[in-house]
Each structure stands twice: as C-alpha cells, then as structure tokens.
Amino acid sequence: MKKIRGTVKLTDLKKGSKGIVSGIRSDRDKNRKLLTLGILPGEEIILVQKYPVLLLKLGYSFVAIDENLGKNIKVIPLNNSPYHEKE
Amino acid sequence: MQKEKTILLVGRPNVGKSVIFNRITDSYAVVSNYPGTTVDISTGKFIYNQKLYSVKDTPGVYSLTPFSEEEKVTASLLKEKEVALVVQVVEAKNLDKMLSLTFQLMDTGHPLILVVNMLDEAKEAGLFLDLKKLEEKLKIPVVGTVSIRGQGIDRLKRIMESQLGPKKKSRTKHYLRSYPGELERQRAAREVVKDILISPQKAEVSFRFKLSLLTMHPLWGLFFLGLILYYGLYKFVGVFGAGFMVDLMDGYVYQEMIMPLLLRWGQGIPFPWLNQLLFADYGLFNLGMRYSMAVVLPIVTSFFLFFSIIEDSGYLPRLAMLLDRLFKAFGLNGRSVIPLILGLGCGTMAVMSTRTLETKRERFIAVLLLALGIPCSAQLGLILSILAGQPRALAIWGLSLLLILSAAGFLLNKILPGKNPDFYMEIPPLRLPHLKALLKKTSARIKWYMKEVVPLFLLVSIIMWGGNMSGVLDRVILFLHPLLGAMSLPGELAPVFILGFFRRDYGAAGLYDLVKAGLLTGPQLVVASLTLSLFLPCIAQFIMVVKEQGLGRGTAILIIVIFTAFSAGYIVSRILTIVPLL
Predict the structure, then answer these.
(1) What is the pLDDT of residue A1?
(2) I need a labelling partner for B280 at 20 to 30 A (CA). Which of B229, B327, B472, B538 fits?
(3) Angle separating helix axes B435-470 and B17-24, nearest 10 degrees
(4) What interface predicted TM-score (ipTM) does this complex get?
C-alpha cells in the first residue's frame, strides 16, 4: 500500500494521474533532454498514457518518453482524477 | 565584396517558423545543403532601406547547448559576424517552455525580436497573454502573430526595420539577468509567464484535439496508421502516382508524343554509334531519360507530397511514438521513423537522414535495413501495380519482406554491442498543413532528387550501352543464369537484376516490362519481386552508405544484402513449389 504523500516513480503512476515532478535521478545528458522538454522539478504533469510510451501533458504541450527515461523521474502524485482538457 | 548582413530566424520545431519565413522574405528561397529532413537551412531576402539582408531559417532547436547537429549549426550561425538581427519564433501556448531559449539568445548580444505565434491556438485553449507586459519585462520587442492567417506580419516587418535601422540612442536597457544553466532558465521562464498570464478562460474542446488523442492511442492509433498507409501510400502513391500518372507520362506523353519526335530527329544523325547510344534498348532516350522523367518522377513526386503532408500535419511524431516499442526490438527507437519512412520514398535521401540518429549503432542498423529491404517509392509503386491484380502474391511479397526485415533487425540487435538510446519527443498539435509550405517543401525535394537521378540514369545507360556493345553485359548475364535457375526464374530476368544494381527502381521498371510481355508466372513474379526488393541498394544509395558508414562497413552491408537477397529468393521459391500458395 503506497503512501499518497510520498514520491513515486513516474512509471508507477496510473494512467490519467496528475503529479508534480519532484526530481530527476539520472545522468547529465538525460537530465538536460528532459529539462528542455519542460520536465523540471515543480512542474505539474498529467500521465495521459502509459503504452506504448509514456505520454505526458505539461501545461499545453504533450511529451512522449520511454519507460527507461520515465523510471528516473520522481513524482509526487496529486489526486487521481482522470485528466480533462481544460487544464 | 562586403558580405550581406544576415537575419537569423530561430525557434523550436513546429512553431510556424517556416511560415513566418515565407511571409517576411518576398523572393525565392534557396534551400541549402545541411541534409536530412530536420537540418535544412533556407535562405531568403529581406530588403530595407535599399540594403539587402539575407534571412536564414535555422533548423528547429530547443536550446543552444551544442549537443545535436541542429544545435551546433544554429550556435555556429549565431557566432557569425554578419548577424544583424535575431528573430525568435515561439508558440504562445508553450511560452513558459520556450523562453529559456530567449534567455540564451539574449546572451549572444544580438538585437532580438520575440514573435509569439499561434495566438489562435492559445485562444482556443483559453489562454491569454499580456504581450505588452512581456515586452516591458524582457526589454525586447514582442510581436504577437497568427502566421497562417498573416496576422501581425506587417507589424513584425516594421519592428524588424526599426531594429535594423541606425541606433538612434545608445542601446536601450537590457534584460540584465543571465542564467547559469537550463534549470534556472526554465524556472525564470515559468515565473515570467505566470506574471503575464491573464486569467485563463474556458477552453473549447475541439474536434482536432479529440483526433489528436485518437492518433496516439495504442489501438486507434494503429488503425489510423493503417488508414494513412492505405489511402496515402497505396492509393495515392501506388495507384495514382505509380499507376495513373506513370501511364500518363510514360504511356502517353513519352511513348506517343515525345519518342516519335525524337526518333524522327534521330534519323538525321550520321553516326551509328551515337544513334545506338541514344535510341537502342539501353540507350539514353529509351532507358535513361524515359525512366527518370516518365516513370520515376511522377511516383517520387507523389511520395514527397505524401511525406510533406504527414510531416507538416504533425503526424510523424505520433507515428514515432506508436512504433517506438516495436523499433526497440530492432535496436532502433521511435526516432528512426523518419529515415525509415523516407526510405519508402528515396533510399539515398533516407540514408543521408540517418545522421540525425543519436548513436553509431542505431545509424548502422538503420542504414542496413534501408539497404536491405525498404523499397523506394518508385520500386514500391511499380511492384504494387504489378502485383495489384494478384492480392495473394502481394501479400506474400509484403509479409516475406517484413519478416526478413524484422529478422535482420532482431539479429542485429542481439549481435551488436551497445544499448538503445532513449526515446523522447515533443508531440505537436495536429495542424492543417499550409499549402504553400507543402508545395515548397515538395518541390525542393524533387529538385534534389532530379539532381541525383538524371545524371545517374544517364550514366547507367551509357555503362549498359558500353557493356552491351563490348559483350561484357552478355557475360554477366550468363553468370546470373544459374543463380536465377536455382530460384526457378527465367534467364530474361538477368538484365533486370543488372539494371537493379545501378538503380533499384530501374530494376523494378524492367520487371514491369517483362510482366507486361507476359513472361512470368505467379510464383516467379513473387520470387523475382522479393529478390529485387532485397537486392542491393541503388548505386546512389550505395555511394551514400559508403559516405555515411565508411568503406569497410559499406562493403559489409553490401555483402550481407546480396547474400540475403538470393538466399531469401531461393527459400521462397522452394516454399512456393512445395506449398502451392498461388
């Protein structure tokens, strides 16, 4: 039973969850790639899809990353509301 | 001679930079030589105060740290002395992510104008930004535009002019802060945008948005892909391009209008060898000109149009996303979608575009798969039209090709050391492609192709003619007979394979003639089509392979490909005799 207030890996979130990025745990190159895409600590993301790749909604943009990158992103999950467009 | 001053257009991909470029330059743009689909530089002209400025549309970049080809190119362009002005185009909706590049551009010291484009999409999403406030904060001119509708363009031009004019006073105050790294830039960008945001209104839920989600869905996305492949590749490129247009160009325009004129003119030539060179079976007019202009050109044009559409509509990244997992089994990842699909158009161009792939391992695998079994559009169109009347033959051909490619990719992934690079990609919204941009892109690609094709076709004709005259050709044909015999194929096919060595589509075109003459049975057709599709890249592609991979690896690829082609042909021919599938 996971604690809701703790951080989890992005890959552990369920489809449709919202969360806030709390940290990225990887090497500098991967870090930089994710940063320029807008994935940085404090950013609110919605995990739109998990398959075949992780599809994230950040503000008004969509970013796709694979599981390998995704498992290095730590997220604080927010309420598990299914994502809707207005955000 | 003093070099022209340049105006650089910078920004991420998919922000409408090219449309802005087209709108501010009023004359013919020249696309220069950074190869591959994402690394082109278009140069156009901007005239102000009787001075000519050269406007360069740089490749789309996310930042200036020189890691990728595009970033290196853009960073070096920014260092040139002739830079008079930098215009950065950003997408209104995602301003918070794009301002990071603005800060980097400010650090270069050049005069900078920020163009906030696609305001219409922002409005649709319920987002309103106070651009005046942004201008005050950043201390650079900010122009809001909707580039496809031409809104804001006049104001942009005027502001460009004012920035290019003589500096009336000493440089106005600058945005004083400079950020040490990406994280700080991104954070600062978020702060700025939060500050200029006018409370978000209700967003409209558009059809476009729903469609966008559908195309990314694992199941619906594949269904949608199937639709695109069917209507786009099969119906448009195959049936229309390779069928109707070729019949029109080759059958009617060339055979019935141009050839008789040429023949009559040719009768006046006093040198029989010249006559031979021009009009004989492998002659320049009969083979070289005919195939390049009447057979290949219509097909390749329709393919490039199709590709430009899926590129500009924003569909390509979605395709990359859907195929990523599959591609990982072959040692590639979703980013390889671009070279592999380009390979369906022109293998040479596709090999060139493998430069954009991140690792050497990926590049090698992609190049090998391209050389092995990805048929170029001319070949694809022809084979589709030949086998169209026999759906089972088409299915066997297609499946065998897919199987062999998958097996090759899978094996390579197991054998070659190294790992897959990670997949990450921004997915832009689906947009209706701008017609002018489509046509410009397509015509630029056709021009490149013609520069590549016509000389080679003519060269091939001359070599074939020479080989024919000297008897060398006959000896090579004799050599091929036993190989073909092992696959139960008639000897007449030999010249087709030789032609295929020089240009793959050539080979397929030769096959087309044989089929028309009724010389092949169903199973023979399948075996021949399959072997040809696998057999050797065309000489232009091979030269490109050597350029990209080096002579050693290029030769290795050649050997692997020849071996696989004939083995596969042999195996399939045996299978078809044992199991009467046709």
Answers:
(1) 39
(2) B538
(3) 90
(4) 0.85
Smallest CA–CA distance, residue A29 to chain B, in Å, is: 9
Same domain membership, residue B248 and residue B165: no
**CA B581 to CA B99: how far, in whole Å?**
61
One-letter amino acid for residue B351 of the chain:
V
**In one letter, which amino acid is B83?**
V
Asked if B436 and B377 touch (Cβ cutoff 8 Å), the reply is no
Here the CATH number for the domain that contains residue A48 is 2.30.30.90
Beta-ladder partners of B47 = B52
Number of domains in chain A: 1
Taking CA atoms, what residue in A is nearest to B193? A59
Nearest to B426 among A37, A51, A59 (CB): A37
Mean pLDDT of chain B: 81
CATH number, domain with residue B16: 3.40.50.300
Residues B100 and B189: beta-carbon distance below 8 Å = yes
3-state secondary structure of B202: coil
Q: Which pLDDT score is estimated for B38?
A: 43
Contact B426 A62 (CB under 8 A): yes
Q: Would you call the peptide bond into A52 cis, given omega within 30 degrees of 0 as the criterion?
A: yes
Domain of B82 in residue numbering reads as 5-198
pLDDT of residue B10: 94
C-alpha B443, offset from chain centre: 12
Highest average pLDDT, of A75-84, B378-387, B434-443, B463-472, comes from B434-443
CB contacts of B324 in chain A (<8 Å) are: 52-53, 64, 66
Please indicate whether, in this complex, the C-beta atoms of B97 and A38 are within 8 angstroms of each other.
yes
